[in-house]
Design a protein that fits this description.
Two copies of one chain form a homodimer. By secondary structure, chain A is mainly alpha-helical. Chain A is 63% helix and 10% strand. In chain A, helix 1 runs antiparallel to helix 6 (84-99) and helix 3 (33-40) packs across helix 4 (44-56). Chain A binds chain B through residues 1, 4, 97-102, 106, 109-110, 113, 116-117, 120-121, and chain B through 1, 4, 97-102, 106, 109-110, 113, 116-117, 120-121. The first copy, chain A, binds a DNA duplex (30 and 30 nucleotides) through helix 4.
Chain lengths: 123, 123
DNA sequence: TGATAATATTTGGCATACTAAATATATAAA
DNA sequence: TTTATATATTTAGTATGCCAAATATTATCA
């Protein structure tokens, strides 16, 4: 999945993983980095590095919180907003390709099994 | 899975992914790097870097092929061989944890669905 | 108030993983 | 035999992702 999607993302000049972070911002700007790393389930330092790259590519920008100087809030640029549609199109295409030949019943069971596995592994 | 297993592997001073390469060697030494990257489904440069680390940690060593100087063949050290059992124990533990609460019927269907997905994605 | 603890982010260092380009060796073709 | 092509590995550069330690800011408690 990852490898496949990485190839598609290259046409948008993105690295795999970044689209996940952007997705969180599409459903609401001004999030803290702490919230981002909870959502992405990765370390704070990883978020810092990803944001550094995204900021360099003018997809996001950061503003320090007025009330709490430790917090930095992340916002989408116009470019970051515009990239939403093409990525969602890629997601749909990837999903269709992945699930080809798997009927609805199986998809539902698969979902249940994966949820169980998640529960089994997470602390 | 990856994250979980990474934590377990740390007790053996290994990084996640390395155990997969070692596994290939346990079922047969003296493999070329080309064969390794086909088996791991990753790029040749990745194999080079992984082997560099594994060699530094005295788990493997490389010998240039006599008949074809381009080829380097990879072998396990004693240490690399000894690490097999503890890793297989970790695999079994991880599997049991992952599949807890999923009955045999479901496991079989899951397997079939995943195989289908692999076929859908691979070129 | 002033020292201490908690929280948020950053930095440095390392590993997997990729691409693109370089290097070395072997094979094929003129 | 020399040139061109193919194959195997390496190097350089970049990104995600981790850990551990550093830094900055806020909250707490004596």
């Amino acid at each position: 999945m990852r490898r496949n999607f990485a190839i598609a993302l290259r046409s948008l000049n993105l690295h795999v993983g970044q689209e996940h972070l952007l997705c969180r911002l599409w459903s609401g700007d001004g999030v803290t980095q702490q919230q981002l790393c909870e959502h992405l389930k990765c370390e704070a330092s990883t978020v810092t590095n990803m944001l550094k790259t995204l900021e360099k590519n003018k997809l996001v920008y950061r503003i320090r919180d007025d009330n709490d100087g430790r917090i930095s809030r992340v916002f989408l640029t116009e470019k970051g907003r515009e990239i939403k549609e093409p990525i969602e199109k890629m997601w749909r295409a990837q999903q269709d390709k992945l699930l080809n030949g798997i009927v609805t019943e199986e998809r539902l069971l698969l979902r249940r099994i994966l949820k169980q596995m998640e529960k089994n592994l997470l602390p």
